[in-house]
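Help wanted!
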Amino acid sequence: MTPGTLSTILKNGAIWGFIVLELIFFTVAGQFLSLSENAFMDADNMLLLFKQSAPIGIIAMGMTIVMINGNIDLSVGATYALSAVVLLDAMTWPVFGGLGDWVIPVACLLALLTGVVLGAINGLIVWKTGVDAFIVTLGAMLGYRGLVFMYNGEQPTSHLNWTLVDFAEMQVLGLHTATWVLLIVTVAMWFLMNRTVHGRNAYAIGNNREAAVNAGIRVGPHMLINFMIIGFLAALSAVVFYAETGSVNPNDGELYELWVITAVVLGGTKLTGGAGSIVSTFGGVLAIQLLRKGLAHIGADTSTVNLVIGLILIAVLLLDRQLNVKGKEELKI
Amino acid sequence: MEGEMATLTKKDIGGFLARQGILVAFALFMIGFTLANAQFLNPDNVMGVVRSSAILGVMALGVTFVVISGNLDLSVGSMMSFSTIVVLDLHDKLGPTLAIPAMFAMTLCLGAFIGFLVGYLKLNSLIVTLGMLSAIHGLTLTYSGGKNMDIADKEGTWFSIFGQGDALGIPVPILIFLLLAVVLGTMLAKTPFGRKIYAVGGNGTAATFSGIPRARVVFSCYLVSAFCVATAGLLQASRSMGSQNTVGQGLELEVLAAVILGGASLMGGSGTIFKTVIGVLILGFIQNGLLLVGLPFYVQYVVTWIIIILAVWLDIAAKRGRLWSPIA
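Answered by r_m:
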């Protein structure tokens, strides 16, 4: 047993403890404050909560692996928007006119491909130029957003395909399609990070890049793959969300990067890389969505949600520092 | 003299280009746009560009301090919304003479809070300011109740002088921007405080061992940033005399882009006010130039993307002496 065991358990369990606290608080407070007849823990409400977590949650899984790898991606919101535009627009291309409903998988594939390519561009630039991922993706956030606008001007891109809408609204075993996608992505990313060589190397690179290089790990390809994965997931998130709504504004997805990073950091992933877990990120995503929904349930408006989430993020950082302070000081000296 | 010329190798030229690349790029842009549209260098147009860059520029001056100290400030956009809303609201309640200092005091409190968290508690600045971005946005919405703020009697007040006035034939926002740039530039380059900021950002541990109070220096940088944000909020409020709650949304990243374009390293320890001003002007002139050529506004996003990456890439390529990164 290492000396840090207790704090490790505290840290990994903290997000779930927080979720339980939220559930208790909103259930009790809801009894007194809510205008709604339904209880907060109502089954339909919880199902909806999962569904609404999906767009941010799917991207957050990608952000987790990129951050474990020691990088960050600020361009996910723009990637999300551009993939959505491709998805909806591709369904109206005359080339695919004869395909009937088979245009749906084709359009989805094109959208996912867009995400992968945008991710690959970021990854290649980070790899080949050695510019910090923060700067590369900050630039890409502007650049990709520019591409969204160039695609269709300032007009919204709309196309409603009812087969696709039916698919998005389908419930299998009580769960919505979006929820299933979120769960599958979570399991897949968990498997990738915990059971494959790529995952182990990604942790190693984030933890100590020099040591990883000395151990013969090729840093570049792993970073590239992770950027392609987050691009893919941002596109997947767009496919899941816009399948149902059928209309995308050029400004959609703005500030998504901030929500996603908030969820990932709440889950305990370090910005410096090397530490973090997919399961905790899942907890972070649920915690944020619970907070938004819970505060709405007890009649608070969006301003309170913003205020509370910001302060909680800082509180988490403080708590994390208290738990870590011993280990860090030992390292520094 | 001739000998020196002869020893000018390809590498020296590359090094010069990389070090002064931003100025070269700036010059090329100006020439290109001038050739494309003769109106570009028209004094009225130049004045207009500088004037519309002034708000972004004032914020970038403060963020330069924070970045040189080795930290980030992502909260400046929502903090600017806060100052704008607060000063507009207080203008009608207290009158402009009291409203302005009150707004500065409130904004400085926010800056002090961030400075305390990052400086004294040593929390990660990216996440703290990300949290504050959200929290201050919430605070602004709570303060205004979600409504737009407007000055009731727009004609009967001297408040508009900051954003719309002229002095000596020059618009007041430009004067404020330049004055602040000179003061802060001198502070950074010529005073012990400025040198301490470079020391803390360059190597925090070494600075601490040299007896430089790291925490207090970082704290002061966030105060400077908050002061600049308050000034930007004043300019914005005075220019439009009314505002939405989201007026500064997204500005934090544009400001950061300008600072990075100016060549400040996000690792801290490098950058100057002069270069940041150049970065701000480049962004402003690109935007204006592309519009004058007849391209829609969003083309500037793509151009900015390419320029940011090229600028930073050339900068680090010069430092490591090779173009491509050694990452395997």
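OP: Thanks! One thing I noticed: Chain A touches chain B through 53 residues (CB under 8 Å).
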